Amino acid sequence: MAKTLFEKIWATHLVAETPSGAALIAIDRVFLHERTGAAALKRMAEMGRKVLDPARVFAVMDHIVDTRPGRGDGTLMQGGEGFITETRAATKAAGITLFDVNDKDQGIVHVISPEQGIVLPGVTLVAPDSHTCTQGAFGALAWGIGSSEAEHAMATGTLRLDTPRTMRVTYEGALPDGVTAKDMVLALIAAHGAGGGAGQVVEFAGEAVSALDMEARMTLCNMATEFSAMTGLIAPDAKTFEYLAGRPYAPTDFNEHYWSDLKSDEGAEFDKEVTIDASKLAPMVSWGTSPEHTIPVTGNVPQGPEKVHKYIGLDAGAPLAGTPVDVAFIGSCTNSRISDLRRAARILNGRRIASNIQKAMVVPGSLSVKRQAEAEGLDKVFTDAGFEWRMSGCSLCFYAGGEGFPEGSRTISSTNRNFEGRQGPGIRTHIASPETVAASAIAGAIADHRDYAPLKNKEEEPA
Fold first, then answer.
1. Which residues form the Aconitase/3-isopropylmalate dehydratase large subunit alpha/beta/alpha domain (predicted)?
2. Closest to 413 (Cα-Cα) out of 353, 458, 360
3. Which of 52, 245, 371, 443 has a 20 to 30 Å separation from 317 between CA atoms?
4. Distance between CA atoms of residues 123 and 29, nearest Å
5. What DSSP string runs through 369-437?
6. Do the beta carbons of residue 367 and residue 40 sit within 8 Å?
7. Does one domain contain both 265 and 351?
8. CA gyration radius for the chain?
9. For residue 12, is it within any domain?
10. Which among 127, 151, 214 is positioned nearest to 394, based on CA atoms?
11. How many CA atoms lie within 13 A of 419 on its CB side?
12. Tens digit of pLDDT for each residue in 371-409?
């Protein structure tokens, strides 16, 4: 019987089924972060439960750490230092691998797990973070869980789940120049709604998906949770194997025969099929307070709920391009990898941000990305253009009570969420690709990055 990629992974991890249809699934990897990790480990210790296999559990300091240069355990978030020190103590007591604040491999969990080869094709991986679906780009079944579920997974190596439904999203044709994986997923959510994938495992397929590199595939899967999906995933291929080769936690001897079979069989049936013509996509920018409030950068703001228009400060019918912005932000688990920084830097090289931009910053997704970018001189491109160059972390993608942007600011951001207060009290966030963020910072307003070709020399840009 023809099986989907999801069904193959599910079958190899199925421990037991209940009469009601729930399943007990084996969990291969658990990743914790300092916002909830210490609490989960402390509760387990108090109940006399140990981590079943510490070698399969990892933790990182990424959610609450400051991104300011020279950072330590102290944070601008009140009480943040306690999260950090308690996580350090709890992971040491449990024998868990920790990527600490200034560890050379520290970074955002969904960036460093692939960098380290912790996620692999065919594994099940969970973390108390909704964007764990990012790692489905490797043909893994990876999803976000709650803190109590993390305790169960660490103590038993399993989780109880209802069998999810399946959806395949096929992007036919080739992407036009200047259109990215971020635009692909925003177009999907805009067309089918933020609840369009509710409760489903979404497999991304098609010519345009196969053409993406691994970092772009991670961006595509990252926002499956904004589609309300349980997770997103992509069948592994030669690009996947090449990316993982030589990674610290990846096997030295790949089982390519098994990995190569991790794809949906011809004739496999999905509960829902969606097809998108990739050749007709354009750079996308959100206009409201949900990722489904997204249109092409060249479009006009549509009519939406009155509350949304009031918060975002845009009237229906107004052109989105040309809307002044106060802040430009490049970072997050969606778009902070080296390829993201390279594309933004190509636009910024030889140019300066507009005088009305109050704050512009780049937060690399990991310290490895930061070092690589500095070796390529990208940091100087950003700082010469007027951006701050930061340490890696999640802060400023989501507001945790520490550092923030000026209240009421309008930001153009490479992050994944734009709901009210996501980046701070009263902040109005427009999500877009790193290229669009770079072009908008130069223009001082939402701009089409296709109008900003890389300069050959500084004299090319008109005053």
1. 7-444
2. 360
3. 443
4. 8
5. HHHHHHHTTHHHHHHHHT-EE--SSSBTTB--SSS-PPTT-EEEESSS--STTTTSTT-EEEE--HHHH
6. no
7. no
8. 21
9. yes
10. 127
11. 4
12. 999 999 999 999 999 999 999 999 889 888 788 898 899
Nearest alpha-carbon partner for 29 in 53, 65, 5: 53
pLDDT at 404: 87
Q: 240 and 113, same structural domain? A: yes
CA nearest 65: which of 315, 309, 367, 306? 367
Q: Which two tokens stand for residue 80?
A: 């943040």
CATH number at 214 reads 3.30.499.10
Q: Is residue 407 part of a domain?
A: yes
The model's pTM is 0.96
Query: Does 240 share its domain with 308?
Result: no
Count: domains in the chain: 2
Please indicate, yes or no, whether residues 10 and 41 belong to a single structural domain of this protein: yes
Rounded to 5 degrees, φ, ψ at 215 are -70, -35
Say what the alpha-carbon torsion angle 413, 129, 10, 247 is, to the nearest 10 degrees: 70
pLDDT in tens, 171-210: 999 999 999 999 999 999 999 999 999 999 999 999 999 9
Residue 463 lies in a domain: no
Task: Please report the beta strands in 6-83, taking only residues with DSSP state E, as ranges in sequence order.
Answer: 14-17, 22-26, 29-33, 57-60
Expressed as residue numbers, the domain containing 356 is 286-450
Of 209, 240, 275, which residue sits at a domain end? 275
Q: In this structure, are 140 and 60 located in the same domain?
A: yes
- Token representation of residue 453: 């070709």
Q: How far apart are the first and last CA of the chain?
A: 64
Strand 22-26 vs strand 158-162: parallel, antiparallel, or unpaired? antiparallel
Spatial CB neighbours of 308, under 8 Å, sequence gap ≥ 6:
288, 289, 290, 293
Q: Please tell me whether residue 318 adopts helix, strand or coil conformation.
A: coil
Answer yes or no: do 334 and 372 share one domain: yes
Q: Which of 101, 110, 171, 124 is nearest to 6 (CA)?
A: 124
Say how far apart CA 261 and CA 299 lie, in whole Å.
Answer: 42
Q: Which two tokens stand for residue 319?
A: 């052109």
Q: What is the mean pLDDT of residues 303-331?
A: 98
Judgement on whether residues 261 and 328 belong to the same structural domain of the protein:
no
